[in-house]
């Protein structure tokens, strides 16, 4: 059977049209696209979600720490807490720490509940001769990004009336989510992978001239 000229012309015109229809169907086909898109977007999506949750909880914990520093500093400033003055308001370092921990117990564990081999809370309560002598930096053991906290200069020695004092609190907040830990941790113990976010709260003040 031979194909006439008209049939051959129709075939030449039909082939491109069929090809365009096939390509159009392929373009409309969405088989597997959702799974591929989810695979591409899942990691950054969950990273954002977990980072938001971790940041929110850490922010709430840091606010609690700051409130505790303000509260305890105010009690030192007004003479409600004294040290080594022979008064009923005198608190030892252990008693002060226990009282401080009571202020943050809503979200943060310390004192009797704290593992002595994995200390989290560090307090520095001291008298200074002048405001300019108060340190304005975070003491660390080195200049590396994750250098550990250096607490060798910390003490508990608040002064009496009209003295200049600071209350500084540092807390190792453990970042629980592996996905976001590399991005928000800022401290680690020597030889360990970074897994803590160091919270810092400070209050500097001159005590009132209480009797």
Structural overview:
40% of the residues lie in helices and 15% in strands. The protein has 211 residues and is α+β, with helices and mostly antiparallel strands. It is elongated. The model has no long low-confidence stretch (mean pLDDT 83).
Which terms summarize this structure?
single chain; 211 residues; alpha+beta; four-stranded mixed beta sheet; 4 strands; 40% helix; 15% strand
What does the secondary structure layout of this molecule look like, with pairings?
Blueprint: H1 5-28, H2 33-77, H3 93-104, E1 121-128, E2 156-157, E3 164-174, H4 181-184, E4 196-206
Parallel strand pairs: 1-2
Antiparallel strand pairs: 1-3, 3-4
Helix pairs in contact: 2-3
Q: How many extended strands? A: 4
Share in helix? 40-55%
Q: Provide the gyration radius in Å.
A: 32 Å
What count of structural domains?
1
pLDDT averaged residue by residue = 83
Oligomer: single chain
Strand order of the largest sheet: 2-1-3-4
- Beta percentage is 15-25%
* Secondary-structure element pattern, one letter each: HHHEEEHE
| Number of distinct helices | 4
Class inferred from helices and paired strands: alpha+beta
Q: What is the CA-CA span between the terminal residues?
A: 123 Å
Contiguous runs where pLDDT drops below 50 for at least 5 residues: none
How does the overall form come out from the CA principal axes?
Answer: elongated
Question: Major sheet, described briefly?
Answer: 4 strands, mixed
